[in-house]
Amino acid sequence: MLAEHSGFVPLNRDGLVDRVAKTLVDAILSGGIPSGARLAESTIARQMDLSRAPVREALRLLESSGLVEYRTNRGFFVKVVSAVSVSDLYDLRILLETAAIRRLTETNAEAALPALRAQVAELHRLADEEADLMAHVSADMQFHRLICESSGNLRFLQLFDQIANETKLGLLVIGRLYDDSHQMAETHEPIVEAIALHDADRAVAAISYHISVAKELVTQHFFDQQESKPE
């Protein structure tokens, strides 16, 4: 229950709704508020020393991003992620990111490469340091965000940002992706290589394969979790 999460502190009024939303996102993605938990507006408002109005607006923002769901006559809850919903999400990412990488490779490859290479290096650094799962996930999502951003299509970037937190929530629920974090970093290298060659078809194939493999791993972890639960 939310009442058990005591990490909220009073906020000032500058950019209030966005700051409330970010505080809630951080609490959810850190595991402080678990999947399926009720998000009581009154409790959140009291802990943050706010009225309920900005809290309600923030929860609506989280609902639009897929992180929170509203249940009639019951209020807001952290979304319960399933194998089916995650599979659908990855299918959407394939459509989005293949379009983004084609445009990037054809129009903006040289400008995009330094940041993409730096992000792959960051993934390797995190693997060397044995960083926690969410550090790896955040770095991975930043790589994919850079692809959408560097495509030059603002709609691609906006859509990616809408689904990014739901992707992170799914990975938080299963608690793992690749057993070897160095392998996770290495899977991004063929994507960068294809962009460097200005080969749009190869880049599309590389990122489609990359996301498809992640989809299979994530959904299998969900099914494994279901099978391991006691009857």
Task: Write the topology of this structure.
Elements: H1 16-29, E1 38-39, H2 41-48, H3 52-64, E2 68-71, E3 75-78, H4 83-107, H5 109-128, H6 133-150, H7 154-174, H8 181-186, H9 189-196, H10 200-228
Antiparallel strand pairs: 1-3, 2-3
Provide an overview of this structure.
With 231 residues, the protein is mainly alpha-helical. The chain folds into two domains: 77 residues, Arc Repressor Mutant, subunit A (Orthogonal Bundle); 146 residues, Up-down Bundle (Four Helix Bundle (Hemerythrin (Met), subunit A)), CATH 1.20.120. It has a three-stranded antiparallel beta sheet. The radius of gyration is 19 Å and the shape is globular. The chain starts with 15 loop residues before the first helix and ends with a helix. The relative contact order is 0.13. The model has no long low-confidence stretch (mean pLDDT 88).
**CATH topology-level name of the largest domain:** Four Helix Bundle (Hemerythrin (Met), subunit A)
Kindly report the spatial arrangement of strands forming the biggest sheet: 1-3-2
Quickly count the domains: 2
Binned, the helix content reads over 70%
The overall strand count is 3
Looking at the overall shape, the CATH architecture of the largest domain is Up-down Bundle
Spans of at least 5 consecutive residues with low confidence: none
Query: Radius of gyration over alpha carbons?
Result: 19 Å
Q: Report the end-to-end length measured between terminal Cα atoms.
A: 24 Å
CATH superfamily of the largest domain: GntR ligand-binding domain-like
CATH class of the largest domain: Mainly Alpha
Domain HTH gntR-type: 14-81
Protein name: Putative D-xylose utilization operon transcriptional repressor
InterPro entries: GntR_C (IPR011711), TF_FadR/GntR_C (IPR008920), Tscrpt_reg_HTH_GntR (IPR000524), WH-like_DNA-bd_sf (IPR036388), WH_DNA-bd_sf (IPR036390)
Organism: Pseudosulfitobacter pseudonitzschiae
